[in-house]
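Following up on my earlier thread - several people asked me to post the actual chain instead of describing it. Fair enough. Here it is, all 104 residues.
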Amino acid sequence: MKISRAGALVEFYIDVHIRNPIDTSIDAGLIVTKAIANVSFFVNDALTLFGDIHELQLNVVDFYPYFKTSSSMKNMNQKLSLLVPFIESYANSVLDQGWRLPIP
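Reply from S.P.:
Thanks for posting it. Predicted structure:
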């Protein structure tokens, strides 16, 4: 995380486990995704932390299918790019609820 007066640049990795649709106790593959987002944080007088994510970028960096598939990292990135607005919107709705900071 890089923090400046303008906000924070957050970079992290997400492991996405793809479940076998026939037997959900078995993984069908793993996608490793790198996320980069600009985040603005706010703390109110009640010591509740709020935030706003903007300019979210997601990129598949590794793709490990456990079964034969025609999918590739390239088409996974194309499909993932379609989900970015929905993921950003959901993350912002969670951040709108805020987190009470554990400060006595």
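The helical segments are 73-97. That should answer part of your original question.
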